[in-house]
Amino acid sequence: MKVGLGLYRHMLTRENYDFARQAGCTHVVIHLVDYFGRSLANAGENQPVGGKYEPWGLAGDPRQLWTVEELKRIRREIEDAGLVLAAIENLDPAHWFDVLLDGPERPRHIENVKTIIRRMGEAGIPALGYNFSIAGVCGRVSGPVGRGRAVSVGMDGPADEVPVPKGMIWNMVYNANASPGPLPSISQEELWRRLTRFLEDVLPVAEKSGVRLAAHPDDPPLPAMRRQPRLVYQPGLYRRLLDVSPSRANALELCVGSLAEMTEGDVYETVDRYSREGEIAYVHLRNVAGKVPHYRETFIDEGDVDMLRILAILKRNAFDGVIIPDHTPQMSCAAPWHAGMAHTIGYVLAALAMFEKHPETFRNFSG
Ligand SMILES: [Mn+2]
Q1: Domain residues of the chain, as ranges?
Q2: How many Å lie between the centroid of ligand 1 and the Cα of residue 257?
Q3: How far, in Å, from the CA of 177 to the mean position of ligand 1?
């Protein structure tokens, strides 16, 4: 099991790579989609939150795919800092919106995804996190509701009042000049049909390129949001996603926080099942209090989930992928995001050191 740090695009600097090393990380997961540069809502020193229904910002340039040179350069910079680049997290909505929408550009957008995967393979980047979602991360509110009045995010009830507008997909605007009006609703089965076609189209390329596609569950995990269905909003639906097309390249970006927010299942049993079967590409670690549609994100050492037990289960099942802190509440200091990350990483490293030095502890914990 390896400990990593997730970095947003504007954080891909030597200073942050050094920070990751100093905190004890060996790996990084990077975002190349810019949620901040063309955003009204996100200041850049926190996870992108947006408002309950506001987009994170404008999607990127639809004609500009990430190049092999760019990917290799970023990998080299990360390795020069003594770290390993474990994954890219999230596709740019501009590159694949009609895969999600089943729109007229779908054939070109499928080619875009295939090209990105091939280039990742060429640059030696082994995993691509994605979120097959129309409404994306939405419906959350933020405020000083965390421990010590830390600003944190969560839900205070369902989020169905405002439908997804045309021109927006996931959390971003891909067409600022779209005609007004809501995106038509689709059925759950139609969303699964689109996912199935997507996986069938791109998995052969991923297998050949040595890149694992890693699916994030819905955040927040409700069956529908903004009048659009969602895909993985209960733990068992991860099984359905894997069964669509069994392959080593069809894997999970397993988010403990999102799984804990789900109304069904047991988060320990879920982590046990998917880690035992080797289906996790990498892990998002985050604690929460409550379940949808009423929960809030917490610090790692509080909340509903016994994180020592989660880590013990991963250890027992010999999970050898990367764990990264997901979001944390913002800590009151000059570097709220970094402080939250360092706090989480320190907690994880302490647990792993304890398991290493006192093996009886993880055997007891993991049950
Ligand atoms: Mn997550």
Answers
A1: 2-366
A2: 6
A3: 31
Distance 62 CA to ligand 1 centre (A): 25
Long-range contacts of 234-237 (CB under 8 A, 24+ apart): 234/262, 234/263, 234/264, 234/265, 235/259, 235/262, 235/264, 235/265, 235/266, 235/267, 235/269, 235/270, 236/264, 236/265
The architecture of the domain spanning 2-366 is: Alpha-Beta Barrel (3.20)
- For residue 22, report the distance from its CA to the centre of ligand 1, in Å: 23
pTM of the model: 0.96
**Hey, what are 5's tokens?**
């740090």
Distance 216 CA to ligand 1 centre (A): 7
The amino acid sitting at 78 is: I
Give pLDDT < 50 ranges for the chain: none
Distance CA 30, CA 5 (A): 8
Nearest to residue 37, comparing CAs of 15, 59, 13? Answer: 59
* Distance from C-alpha of 7 to C-alpha of 77, rounded to nearest angstrom: 14
Residue with tokens 């004890």: 24
User: In this predicted model, what pLDDT tens digit does every residue of 285-343 receive, in sequence order?
Assistant: 999 999 999 999 999 999 999 999 999 999 999 999 999 999 999 999 999 999 999 99
